[in-house]
C-alpha cells in the first residue's frame, strides 16, 4: 500500500474510479452486497494512480514499472534471516525464497532435485554424491558450484545453530569432498536415513559474497563467517532476492529474473510481507483488496469475515502436524501409566473439533493421516468417562485424590477453552485440574526440567523436515529431552530403539513398518493426548492461487508457487 492509496477518496467508489484510475479489486470489494454481476461488460480501467501504482483487469496490484505485487501479512517479528540459524516459520519463509537447498520436498514429502540435478547413495548408505546443475547463479551473478555447497555445510556445522544439531555426530567437515566443480560428496559416519530430508534445510550461500563481507570473528580466516552481513542481506540463489528489510515491520522480495526454474504465468514480481497483529486491520485490508494473503494465525472471527467477502476466500488444508496435550511422564501422578490412560479416555475430543475448533480434524494417533507412514489401526481414545473412572479405580485412586496442572499459551483464547473443557472432563472422572496459562517464552523455559514442566501442556508440533523422523525424534527420543517439543520427558528404551532403527534403515518400506510399530508403542504409553489434526487456514484474494503445502515448516510460503489468475 502506498500513501496515496490510503489518501483522500479511499473507500468512496465512483464511476471515475472504475473507468480510470481506481482499483477494480477495491471497487468489487466495496460493491459488497450489490454483487459483481452488474459489472459484466464493463471494462475495468488500468490507468495509473497518482503514485504511479495501478491495477490491471484482473484486479492485481501493479507497481510503477508494470510489475505485480503480492502483499501478505504475518503476526510475529522476523528474527534472523541467516540460513544457518533460522528455525521458526517466518524465518523459513524468508529462507525458502532467498536461498536454494540441494533438494526440495514436493507436496507429498518426496525429495526432488533442486540445485542438485541428481544424486547417488553408496551401497552401505553412508556416502551421498550430488551432481549440481550448471545453469544456476546467485543473485550476485556468481555461479553456484560445489565449493559453495562445501562452504555452506561447513558454515552450518561451525556456527552450530539452527538445525545444525540434526547433523551432529553424523557428518564431519573433513568428509565433505569437492569432486569437481559440479560434484560434491558427503561421507557420513553411519547410515542415516533422515540425511536427505534434512538437506532441504541446508540453504546454499554464495561463498564469494560472504568472504567479501567478513567482519572480525571467531573463525580464523573466515572471521565472523559473514554473520553480521547475512543477517540483513541475502547471499542466495532463490527465486526472490531481498529488496527491503525492516525487521520489526516488513520484508520485501523482488523476483530474480535469472532464476533457473520457470515461474508460473501470473507470478508476482514483488512480494511484500508486513507484520500486522490486529485482526481488525487484516479484515479491513482484505475487504479493501489491499492485502492479498493473510497470516495463518488469524482468529476465527477474521476467517469467518473473509469467507463472507465476495472478493476473497479462505483456504483450509490439512497439515502434517497435531495439537498435542503433552503429558509429563516423569512427574507424579502422571508418571503412572494408569493415570495417563484414564485422562486419555476421559476427554471429549469431539467437542473440540465440533465446537471449539471446527476447522480442525479429529486426530488418530501421534502421526497425522497426511503422512504415508500413518498407522490407521493405531489406538485413538474416544470420550468414555465410565471407562476412565474404572481405570482409576482399578489403579487404586479415589475420587478427588489426584491434582494435576494444565498449561497453554495465554494469547490463544481457543486454547483456554480447550483447557476449561479439559478441567471439566477431568472433574467428571475425579481428577482436579489447575489451569496455568503462560506466555510461549515461559512455556519453553518450563520445558527445560522435569520438575518445572507441567503435568499437561498444549503444544503444536509440525515437522521441520519432510520425514516422520522429524515427528518422532524431536518429541519422543530420550536424547532430545528438555525442550518444548519433548515435554513428555519420555525415556523409553523401546521407543528410542525403534527411532534409532528407523534412522539406520535405508529401505523405505522397512522404515514404514518400524514407524507403524512405533505409533502403536507410543499410543499404548499414553504419553500424549492427540487433541486434533491441524488444518492450515489462510485467507486469499480470489485472484491469487497456487498455495502448496509441504511437510516442512514454513515451506508453504514458497512464493514462486503463487500467481494471479
The helicity comes to 25-40%
Instruction: Quote the beta fraction.
Output: 15-25%
Largest sheet: 5 strands, mixed
How much is the radius of gyration in Å? 26 Å
Helical stretch tally: 17
Task: Give an account of the 3D structure.
By secondary structure, the protein is an alpha+beta fold. 28% of the residues lie in helices and 21% in strands. It is built from 17 helices and 21 strands. A five-stranded mixed β-sheet has the order 17-16-18-15-19. Strand 5 (103-105) and strand 6 form a beta hairpin.
Q: Main traits of this protein?
A:
565 residues; alpha+beta; 21% strand; disordered N terminus
Describe the structure concisely for a colleague.
The protein is of the alpha+beta class and 565 residues long. It is 28% helix and 21% strand.
Write the layout of secondary structure elements.
Elements: H1 15-19, H2 24-31, E1 54-55, E2 61-62, E3 69-74, H3 89-98, E4 100-101, E5 103-105, E6 111-113, E7 116-121, E8 127-132, H4 146-159, E9 171-180, E10 183-188, H5 195-198, E11 203-204, H6 207-211, H7 227-230, E12 240-246, E13 250-255, E14 270-275, H8 279-288, H9 300-307, E15 312-327, H10 337-345, H11 349-356, H12 385-394, E16 402-407, H13 413-428, E17 431-435, H14 440-446, E18 456-461, H15 468-476, H16 493-503, H17 508-525, E19 528-541, E20 544-545, E21 563-564
Parallel strand pairs: 3-14, 16-17, 16-18
Antiparallel strand pairs: 1-2, 4-11, 5-6, 7-8, 8-10, 9-10, 12-13, 13-14, 15-18, 15-19, 20-21
Amino acid at each position: 500500500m502506498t500513501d496515496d492509496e490510503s489518501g483522500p477518496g479511499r473507500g468512496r467508489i465512483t464511476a471515475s474510479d472504475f473507468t480510470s484510475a481506481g482499483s477494480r479489486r477495491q471497487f468489487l470489494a466495496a460493491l459488497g452486497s450489490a454483487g459483481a454481476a452488474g459489472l459484466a461488460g464493463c471494462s475495468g480501467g488500468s490507468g495509473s494512480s497518482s503514485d504511479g501504482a495501478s491495477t490491471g483487469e484482473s484486479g492485481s496490484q501493479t507497481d510503477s514499472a508494470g510489475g505485480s505485487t503480492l502483499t501478505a501479512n504475518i503476526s510475529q517479528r522476523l528474527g534472523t534471516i541467516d540460513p544457518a540459524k533460522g528455525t521458526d516459520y517466518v524465518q523459513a519463509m524468508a529462507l525458502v525464497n532467498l536461498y536454494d537447498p540441494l533438494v526440495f520436498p514436493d507436496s507429498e514429502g518426496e525429495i526432488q532435485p533442486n540445485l542438485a540435478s541428481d544424486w547417488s547413495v553408496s551401497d552401505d548408505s553412508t556416502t551421498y554424491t550430488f551432481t549440481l546443475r550448471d545453469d544456476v547463479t546467485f543473485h550476485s551473478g556468481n555461479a553456484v558450484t560445489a565449493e559453495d555447497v562445501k562452504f555452506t555445510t561447513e558454515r552450518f556445522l561451525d556456527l552450530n545453530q539452527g538445525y545444525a544439531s540434526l547433523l551432529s555426530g553424523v557428518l564431519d567437515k573433513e568428509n565433505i569432498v569437492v569432486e569437481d566443480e559440479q560434484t560434491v560428496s558427503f561421507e557420513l559416519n553411519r547410515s542415516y536415513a533422515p540425511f536427505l530430508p534434512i538437506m532441504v534445510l541446508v540453504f546454499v550461500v554464495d561463498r564469494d559474497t560472504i568472504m567479501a563481507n567478513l567482519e572480525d570473528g571467531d573463525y580464523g580466516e573466515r572471521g565472523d563467517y559473514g554473520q553480521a552481513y547475512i543477517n540483513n542481506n541475502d547471499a542466495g540463489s532463490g527465486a526472490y532476492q531481498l529488496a527491503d528489510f525492516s525487521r520489526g515491520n516488513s520484508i520485501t522480495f523482488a523476483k530474480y529474473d535469472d532464476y533457473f526454474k520457470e515461474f508460473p504465468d501470473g507470478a508476482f514480481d514483488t512480494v511484500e510481507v508486513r507484520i500486522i497483529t490486529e485482526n481488525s486491520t487484516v479484515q479491513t485490508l482484505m475487504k479493501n483488496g489491499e492485502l492479498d494473503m493473510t497470516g495463518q494465525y488469524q482468529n476465527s472471527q477474521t476467517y469467518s469475515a473473509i469467507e463472507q467477502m465476495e472478493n476473497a476466500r479462505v483456504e483450509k488444508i490439512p497439515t502434517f502436524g497435531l495439537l498435542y496435550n503433552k503429558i509429563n511422564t516423569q512427574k507424579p501422578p502422571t508418571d503412572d501409566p494408569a493415570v495417563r490412560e484414564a485422562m486419555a479416555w476421559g476427554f471429549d475430543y469431539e467437542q473440540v473439533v465440533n465446537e471449539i475448533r471446527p476447522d480442525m480434524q479429529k486426530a488418530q494417533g501421534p502421526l497425522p493421516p497426511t503422512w504415508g507412514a500413518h498407522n490407521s489401526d493405531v489406538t485413538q481414545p474416544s470420550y468414555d468417562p465410565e471407562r476412565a473412572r474404572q481405570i482409576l479405580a482399578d489403579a487404586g485412586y479415589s475420587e478427588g485424590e489426584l491434582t494435576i496442572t494444565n498449561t497453554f499459551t495465554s494469547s490463544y483464547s481457543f486454547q483456554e477453552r480447550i483447557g476449561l473443557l479439559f478441567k471439566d472432563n477431568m472433574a467428571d472422572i475425579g481428577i482436579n485440574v489447575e489451569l496455568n496459562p503462560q506466555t510461549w517464552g515461559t512455556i519453553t523455559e518450563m520445558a527445560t526440567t522435569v520438575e518445572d514442566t507441567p503435568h499437561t501442556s498444549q503444544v503444536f508440533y509440525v515437522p521441520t523436515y519432510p520425514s516422520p523422523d522429524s515427528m518422532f525424534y524431536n518429541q519422543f527420543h530420550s536424547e532430545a529431552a528438555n525442550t518444548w517439543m519433548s515435554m513428555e520427558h519420555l525415556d523409553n528404551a523401546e521407543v528410542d530403539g525403534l527411532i534409532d532403527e528407523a534412522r539406520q534403515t535405508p529401505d523405505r518400506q522397512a522404515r514404514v513398518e518400524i514407524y507403524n510399530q512405533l505409533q502403536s508403542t507410543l499410543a499404548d504409553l499414553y504419553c500424549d493426548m492427540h487433541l486434533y489434526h491441524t488444518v492450515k487456514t489462510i485467507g486469499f484474494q480470489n485472484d491469487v492461487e497456487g498455495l502448496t503445502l509441504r511437510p516442512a515448516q514454513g515451506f508453504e510460503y514458497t512464493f514462486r508457487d503463487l500467481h494471479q489468475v
